[in-house]
Design a protein that fits this description.
It is built from 13 helices and nine strands. The protein is an alpha+beta fold. The chain has two domains: 221 residues, no CATH class; 144 residues, Heat Shock Protein 90 (2-Layer Sandwich). A five-stranded mixed beta sheet has the order 3-4-5-9-8. A two-stranded antiparallel ribbon has the order 1-2. Strands 6-7 form a two-stranded antiparallel ribbon. Helix 1 packs parallel to helix 8, helix 5 packs antiparallel against helix 6 and helix 7 packs antiparallel against helix 8.
């Protein structure tokens, strides 16, 4: 019984080490608590396997390889060949320290190699030493991988913790072998070993979570600054457009007057061309909502630069009751995504239209899209490398829509190769 409890602790530590490794190189599939619980249950099931097959080395070897593979599959998203490669590497680096520790220490202290089978205290000591070494190796391996994966690694000073843990546990083992301690002292050394190893792993897990939250905080702050900057930019652009439209209107009036006084046909033709050119400085969109006009004019200009066909129809609703900042957040993020997908497609088309349906204002943005997007549980999954940062645009849209009892839905047509974003916003009560 005591032996099985000791194995539960050791296998749980091994699972947590694997979790730290994969969480640094792969995207999680579920909440951290569910991932850890699933992993621990899979690994600790080895205790039952041990008892059933009388601690068969071959069966244990096969099971732990399968446990690594299954746990990584259930908890993390990773290409199959890459997953298999890392599972094999981790398995090798978990087995070698274990057998190496048993062999070296049994030779040094003249004890049987299998003495740990009958001594739970010795089992935990050897397990803690080997898992500490395994942890150190996996962290070193992560540093090489993260150079290519552009993940934020652990500071070098953090490596002192598992190294100190390994050294302390080895010292405990030496003392336990060299001197005849009472049962109480041996139990105290075992508890200290478990506490050192567990504390080190928890430290890394906590730091990893705090690093993730800090990264999300910085990303959210950057997104907020970006949206505020764009709002300021649109305010300036709106003022400039107003001034330019006044100038263009006055200039056309003056040129028309000059044309009426002129009798030279060549000058008339020249003035007509100038009046036509001045018309280009007028707003493309006249919805009655100045901010909406500025946004659509901006994307109309961008569509010409990127050779994208951009059309709009906002006659039925000009979204005037939506706060300017929220309007910029909603339309900019959705149109940015639409333009990015359209630019990579063969047809290069984007359209936006507004409508009224059953007490709801509706915004429909359609864009050509050759690659089918990933949609899980009504959530659009970004395909960009930095998912945490790039997913914030869509989260910002959702947060802005909550203020207006709004919602958003996505639809992709494989036949037409087009992506449709539909925004539903409840009409304000009068």
């Amino acid at each position: 019984m005591v032996q099985n409890i000791a194995l539960v602790f050791i296998y749980s530590f091994e699972m947590l080490i694997e979790y730290i490794f994969f969480s640094k190189i792969a995207e999680p599939k579920s909440h951290i608590g569910l991932r850890i619980l699933a992993g621990i249950l899979i690994f600790d099931n080895a205790v039952i396997i041990n008892a059933f097959f009388s601690n068969s080395i071959l069966i244990n070897a096969i099971y732990f390889f399968a446990a690594n593979l299954i746990a990584s599959f259930l908890c993390f998203s990773l290409p199959i060949l890459q997953r298999l490669f890392y599972v094999v590497v981790l398995y090798i680096f978990s087995v070698l320290p274990e057998f190496g520790t048993i062999f070296i220490l049994s030779c040094i202290f003249k004890v049987e190699a299998n003495a740990y089978n009958s001594d739970p205290a010795l089992l935990i000591m050897i397990g803690c030493i080997s898992k500490s070494l395994y942890f150190i190796i996996s962290l070193i391996l992560l540093r090489f991988i993260e150079k290519d994966k552009e993940h934020s690694g652990f500071p070098l000073t953090f490596y002192l913790y598992p190294c100190s843990t390994a050294f302390s546990i080895i010292l405990f083992w030496v003392l336990a072998i060299k001197y005849v301690f009472s049962y109480g002292i041996r139990i105290a050394l075992v508890i200290a070993s478990l506490a050192l190893l567990g504390g080190t792993i928890v430290l890394f897990l906590s730091y990893q979570q705090s690093l993730k939250k800090e990264k999300q905080y910085v990303a959210v702050k950057s997104e907020l600054i970006r949206m505020k900057t764009e709002k300021t930019y649109y305010d300036i652009l709106e003022h400039q457009n107003q001034q330019l439209m006044i100038y263009a209107h006055d200039a056309k009036n003056h040129l028309t007057a000059i044309k009426g006084l002129n009798t030279n046909p060549e000058i008339d033709d020249y003035i007509s061309k100038m009046i036509s050119n001045l018309s280009d400085y007028s707003n493309v969109c006249h919805s009655g909502n100045m901010m909406l006009d500025v946004i659509l004019n901006r994307y109309k200009t961008e569509s010409k630069m990127k050779d994208i066909s951009f059309s709009f129809d906002v006659k039925l609703s000009n979204l005037s009751y939506i706060d300017n900042f929220d309007l910029v957040t909603i339309l900019n993020n959705l149109l940015d995504n639409a333009f990015e997908a359209a630019e990579k497609s063969s047809k290069k088309r984007v359209s936006i239209e507004t409508d009224r349906r059953n007490h709801y204002e509706v915004i429909i943005i359609t864009n050509s899209c050759d690659q089918e997007p990933i949609i899980k549980e009504d959530h659009l999954i970004t395909t960009k490398k930095e998912k945490t940062i790039h997913g914030l645009g869509l989260k910002s849209v959702s947060e802005a829509l909550k203020k207006y009892d709004g919602d958003i839905d996505w639809e992709y047509s494989k036949d037409k190769k087009q992506f449709i974003s539909t925004v539903m916003i409840k009409q304000p009560t009068t």
